[in-house]
Write a structure and sequence with these properties.
The chain has about 525 residues and is α/β, with parallel strands linked by helices. Helices cover about 45% and strands about 10% of the residues.
């Protein structure tokens, strides 16, 4: 016979048991709701991604059918930039002709290397408007350029490689895009990037992976995060392009794709409208717009056009009103240059070291003085740790928020995996790994502790203080040797295979080194020379 059991609410044991059931039910319900919410978000983002991919393929096919890459167009894109500028200024070539030539070439480049996310529909109209003017609009009249997908262009998405930002067109264009248009440039496409842009890689689940045009058969990475801009320029699909740079995002793709880039001093180029969704409230790190072009000469042409007047301040009052210094640029006086070929913690490949030594020999032959230079602190791993702490001072909460529900790409899997671990879990595991006497485990320990030493206001202030102290040491060494610039490797090795650049060990061996752009010192940047520090 079954007996009904009636709980005795006066019995403490019964009360505890009932409370446990209620708490367990609540926990299971909350957990189930969160999982269902995540499932719904993933489905929503997957549908958006599929829709965008279909639309993108349709647009690309339509453009390819309309803009054939003819021999005449081939001849146009092969014209040296200075000569091309002259032909456009004298109206020997029309802006429409040049635009259509680079558009046709960029379509082939995107088919082969996946450089472009989307084409700007108004670009052809803008080129025709330039042709209708009685005189050239500016020094960059008719030059087609590409825009990295972390800059706003009116009516276009700024995705950062994340599905949640699809179909959210910008209400206005970035200040630098407006400036270049005022100078006569024609922005015609947005270029591909790694998911979140916080990666050396070049892949995102929305638009796929970018490949390096220098090695079409070997599926090599172009570097990141200005992957598409570097790839497209290397493929001769744009005259120049916009990138961005906080820890090598413009310089690394230039290095791997065989082109040129500059990370200017903070405040030199306007950054309003360049998406800062990745690190919107970051303290202690400075992301800046970067320019990318086939050669330093091309870079200087564009940079001069932007800075020789105060046009930028029309759109961004934070820009430093320092005009282009033509006298300094044309100066032939000899320079005193510090150099090094490798670092103890991050040894460069022999070929990389030979390249630096070759540059040294060329500079010496031209009358410049080169002297050995050593960074003042032997433990360069602390630069990497410091950068990570400053970038993740919020406990990676913002990174977790923007990646919620997203299909994570290989380019960012390492970071996201770290973000998903709790603060205390990371501290405990890193403390245990730190005592294992092998470099690999100590690198893992440092990676796990990223952000843990800047998670309060007091700790963050100490990180900024430490950053300033490290920078001051480097600048003091430069002042002592009376150097004009530093010659050194940008990265310890050339382009990697697309799958290898996602390896966490790559991040562990190419850590952050130095710099402070506000000092006005020029550098041929090394590995990660952080203007942000």
């Amino acid at each position: 016979m079954l007996h009904k059991i009636t709980p005795n609410f006066e019995n403490p044991i019964h009360l505890v048991g009932l409370s446990g059931v209620v708490v367990a039910t609540g926990v299971i319900s909350v957990y189930g709701f969160q999982k269902f919410k995540l499932f719904k978000e993933r489905r929503r983002l997957a549908c958006l991604t599929k829709r965008k991919q279909t639309e993108r393929q349709e647009v690309l096919a339509k453009l390819k059918a309309e803009y054939e890459f003819t021999p005449k167009r081939q001849l146009i894109i092969e014209i040296p930039v200075n000569e091309l500028i002259e032909k456009l200024q004298k109206r020997v070539l029309s802006a429409t002709e040049v635009f259509e030539a680079f558009l046709a070439k960029s379509i082939l480049a995107t088919e082969a290397f996946n450089s472009i996310t989307e084409y700007i529909p108004q670009a052809l109209e803008w080129a025709k408007m330039l042709d209708a003017l009685p005189n050239p609009k500016g020094p960059l009249h008719g030059l087609p350029f590409c825009v990295k997908d972390d800059y706003d262009v009116k009516g276009m998405d700024t995705t950062l490689g994340l599905a949640k930002y699809l179909y959210q067109p910008a209400e206005d264009s970035a200040a630098l895009v407006k400036v270049l248009r005022d100078l006569g440039g024609v922005p015609f496409c947005k270029t591909n990037i790694p998911q979140t842009t916080f990666s050396f890689g070049s892949e995102n689940p929305v638009f796929g992976a970018v490949l390096n045009p220098l090695f079409p058969e070997r599926k090599m990475a172009p570097g990141g995060s200005s992957s598409g801009t570097g790839s497209l320029i290397a493929a001769n699909g744009a005259v120049f392009g916009l990138g961005s740079d906080i820890g090598g995002s413009g310089r690394i793709p230039a290095h791997m794709c065989g082109i040129s880039s500059i990370k200017p001093t903070t405040g030199r180029l306007c950054k309003r409208g360049a998406a800062m969704r990745l690190l919107p409230d970051c303290v202690g790190l400075n992301s800046v717009p970067s320019l990318m072009a086939p050669s330093p000469k091309h870079l200087s042409t564009v940079f001069k056009s932007i800075t020789e007047s105060n046009l930028q301040r029309k759109y961004d009052g934070k820009v430093v009103p320092i005009p282009w210094n033509a006298e300094m640029y044309a100066s032939k006086h000899s320079l005193r240059i510090g150099y090094y070929t490798s670092l103890p913690n991050f040894p460069a490949f022999n070929s990389t070291q030979k390249t630096v030594l070759h540059a040294k020999a060329v500079l010496e032959a031209r009358g410049h003085t080169l002297v050995p230079f050593e960074l003042p602190n032997n433990d360069h791993t602390q630069w990497f740790k410091l950068f990570g702490d400053l970038a993740n001072a919020d406990g990676s909460a913002h990174l977790y928020e923007i990646c919620y529900g997203e299909r994570v790409s290989e380019a960012t899997r390492h970071f996201i995996k770290n973000v998903n671990r709790s603060y205390w879990t990371r501290r405990i595991i890193s403390s245990l790994l730190y005592w294992i006497p092998f470099t690999k485990f100590q690198d893992m320990a440092a990676s796990l502790r990223v952000g843990c030493d800047a998670d309060t206001g007091e700790k963050l202030w100490k990180c900024v203080e430490k950053r300033d102290a490290l920078v001051d040491k480097v600048l003091s060494s430069i002042d002592t040797l009376q150097l004009d610039l530093i010659l050194c490797p940008l990265f310890p090795f050339p382009a990697l295979k697309i799958e290898d650049i996602h390896n966490p060990e790559v991040f562990g061996t190419t850590k952050i080194i130095f710099s402070k752009p506000e000092s006005g010192t020029n550098f041929c940047r090394l590995f990660f020379i952080f203007n942000s520090l």
